[in-house]
Amino acid sequence: MTKIVTAEQAVADIRPGQTITSVGVIGWFTPDAILQAIRERFDRTQEPRDLTFYFPCGTGDAVGIRGMDHVAVEGLMKRIVSGSYINPVNPVTGRRPALMSLVQENRIEAYTWPIGASMQWLREVARRSPGYLTHIGIGTFIDPDQTGGRLTSKATEDLVRKITFEGRPMLFYPAWNLDVGIIRATTSDDLGNLSFEDDPMLSSALALAMAVKACGGTVIAQVKRIVERGSRAAINVRIPAALVDRIVVVPEQMMVTDIQLDPAYLGIENRPLDQLKTVPFSPAKIIARRASQEVRKHELSIFGFGASSDIPLVMAEDGRLNETTVDDYSFTTEHGSYGGVVMNGWQFSCNINPRAVIDGVSQFDLIDGGLCRFAALAFAQFDASGTVNVSRFGTVNPGAGGFTDIAQSAQRLVFTGTFTTGGLKIDCTPEHGLRIVQEGRSRKFVEQAEHVTYRLRDGVARGQSALLVTERAVFSVTPDGLILEEIAPGIDLRRDILAQMDFTPVEIRDPLPLMDADLFKP
């Protein structure tokens, strides 16, 4: 009996109440056709109902590659557990993803986990251990003393427990059953041996397949093409047929949002760095330029989503990163691409001109082990107690992604973000420096953060160093609070900085240095 089936056939026997898990990283690596087939079956038959969905990372962009938004419908989805959530505005409709409505309107049980835990938990399920034990996340949103990762009041189960192990507080994620796993690859033979020639990441595909099979479940693989048995070197087959039950062929599957296939992401075609896209002049570009001054050669450096992912592109645009120097820098993201240049926007997660790629579970082993000594991460809120929030604020619930693992484990940290948000407008001239034309509607330096993604002051107390870089000021972080280290030329200290904060820095350098004027040149 052949394993090759249609997407409709692949999902035909998913039963009500089952738990479905899928790979995917934004638009990368998303088995979109299979997730769509689940939704289409539900629309036709109102079955299957009350499913639990487990996404180790935010899956799909909710626009062209809808991913988890396909299955974001009440009745079909009862519960979701995800390492991150996708929340873009659709450029055509102007709407937020359907999944965000379900969360914000408390219509499903929604949980968010750090991506490190969501990936490493799969390994524990695969080896039938009681669960995943870690110190990462103590005191943050995932700690049961905070929210235990709950995003809605319907989410009442304790999926994470706080225990004491050898006198140390730890977080324990109990194992539970996975019924159906959906993975993606480039190529399969008729047996189901999978390789990844056109995919620049491996994510959690292997761990997910092993976990589902250990639970006695079904693994469905979406691939681009079928090849003859024995036509590939066995060393290039990363998932064996014993872990794959069904194969769905989707010849037109995208590499990522807006890109059908780009060999430069695979490391088999070198993209000249002077041909990379440029970052438009904006507050984010000023921030990326200043943050890039903290990047060192020969230090494994990891970059997060948002303004921090602009840093390598700005370095290339300004000539610091070129064909001669590129291999003096070691750049990565939480998804396992090494070398070359980290990309931003929808293309964040993979690197142009990479030198190596490892799987996502191994990448978080490396991150949690502290091997990424330098990290540049975005921030949405910073509060008077030294807490950083990126995971939940206002009506946005993006989750932490890899932030908590990265922030807790790196030695040198730079947090990037505009001073205020929501309508901020600036102007720069050589004569007057930076001028705030319109202040943002929302403050980011707040008395108390809405969500605890990382307690930075605790990290600084145990030896981490940290800077907060904005378009108008640079702060260092101490156990006692913020020190204002630099100010942009043209900025008024009281009007543009102190009056826009809900708390006061513990110190202002005197004399107060100006940020480099070159940062503000268009």
Key terms for this structure?
522 residues; alpha/beta; Glutaconate Coenzyme A-transferase; eight-stranded parallel β-sheet; eight-stranded mixed β-sheet; 11 helices; 25% strand
The CATH homologous superfamily of the largest domain is termed Glutaconate Coenzyme A-transferase
- According to DSSP, the number of beta strands is 34
Radius of gyration over C-alpha positions, nearest whole angstrom: 23 Å
Portion in beta strands: 15-25%
**Spans where pLDDT lies below 50 across 5 or more residues:** none
- Looking across the biggest beta sheet, what order are the strands in? 1-14-12-9-2-3-4-5
CATH class of the largest domain: Alpha Beta
Residues in helix, %: 10-25%
Q: Can you tell me the overall shape?
A: globular
N→C terminal distance = 63 Å
By secondary-structure content and strand pairing, the structural class works out as alpha/beta
What CATH calls the topology of the largest domain is Glutaconate Coenzyme A-transferase
Q: Specify the biggest β-sheet.
A: 8 strands, parallel
CATH-level-2 architecture of the largest domain: 3-Layer(aba) Sandwich
Let me know the average pLDDT: 96
Number of domains: 2
> How large is the count of helical segments?
11
